[in-house]
């Protein structure tokens, strides 16, 4: 994206008006927001995780019960990648929005902690977190070693830790296919989406439900929605714009515009 093409896209009068009027802002993020930190997305061709790994063998309760070492080792590999990564300009720009008089809610489908490490507090994680494993048997939270090893395990099989409470097997704290999303976070996400006047949908394919309802709810409730994604995406519902390009380039521009109103 050249800065000239970005300026042309940003100059759209409807988009400018939406940015000027915004008071209650929701950022709804997906894997694309972390792409420039070196974390793989799921569905991008060639490099997406689900292009190279079978979700049925890695991201279901049945897969964990059948082969816990394979599943735990794969999530530990991903966790190590996240620990070695740094927040990028998009995460930082989003965090900067909190230091304004806007009412900001950050809702993410991501299981990394890069929003938090950039400075965003109280992020709603709709798909759980790599960093909050729990017991598969009793649900007790499991504390990971504070000084986690930083070398990626290369996807080696690893035995899951044992729960200190009931000696059950510890599982990754992410939401797997077929599982319910954390009820409280999902409800809060839907309510905030229904009540916002601007939603920035950053780096998501928007194909996984119920999370994908968040921008739909915002649009149907009359909010403006801006999609930030190298792949042009519009839902065709209401007042929406697509800004084509990487989040780490767009988010600082958008935030600068919001701050200079
Ligand atoms: P996807 O991999 O489905 O989509 C990532 C999106 O990010 C795509 O639309 C890309 O075009 C876009 N993208 C790639 N690079 C980008 C960049 N630099 N800046 C902005 N956008 C970029 O990931 P999600 O939409 O997050 O669920 O996937 C939703 C859920 O599906 C995930 O939370 C995960 C997965 O199965 C669970 O693990 C439960």
UniProtKB/TrEMBL annotation:
<dbReference type="GO" id="GO:0036054">
    <property type="term" value="F:protein-malonyllysine demalonylase activity"/>
</dbReference>
<dbReference type="InterPro" id="IPR026590">
    <property type="entry name" value="Ssirtuin_cat_dom"/>
</dbReference>
<dbReference type="InterPro" id="IPR027546">
    <property type="entry name" value="Sirtuin_class_III"/>
</dbReference>
<dbReference type="GO" id="GO:0070403">
    <property type="term" value="F:NAD+ binding"/>
</dbReference>
<dbReference type="GO" id="GO:0036055">
    <property type="term" value="F:protein-succinyllysine desuccinylase activity"/>
</dbReference>
<dbReference type="InterPro" id="IPR029035">
    <property type="entry name" value="DHS-like_NAD/FAD-binding_dom"/>
</dbReference>
<dbReference type="InterPro" id="IPR026591">
    <property type="entry name" value="Sirtuin_cat_small_dom_sf"/>
</dbReference>
<protein>
    <recommendedName>
        <fullName>Deacetylase sirtuin-type domain-containing protein</fullName>
    </recommendedName>
</protein>
<dbReference type="Pfam" id="PF02146">
    <property type="entry name" value="SIR2"/>
</dbReference>
<feature type="domain" description="Deacetylase sirtuin-type">
    <location>
        <begin position="5"/>
        <end position="261"/>
    </location>
</feature>
<dbReference type="InterPro" id="IPR003000">
    <property type="entry name" value="Sirtuin"/>
</dbReference>
<keyword id="KW-0808">Transferase</keyword>
<dbReference type="GO" id="GO:0017136">
    <property type="term" value="F:histone deacetylase activity, NAD-dependent"/>
</dbReference>
<dbReference type="InterPro" id="IPR050134">
    <property type="entry name" value="NAD-dep_sirtuin_deacylases"/>
</dbReference>
<keyword id="KW-0520">NAD</keyword>
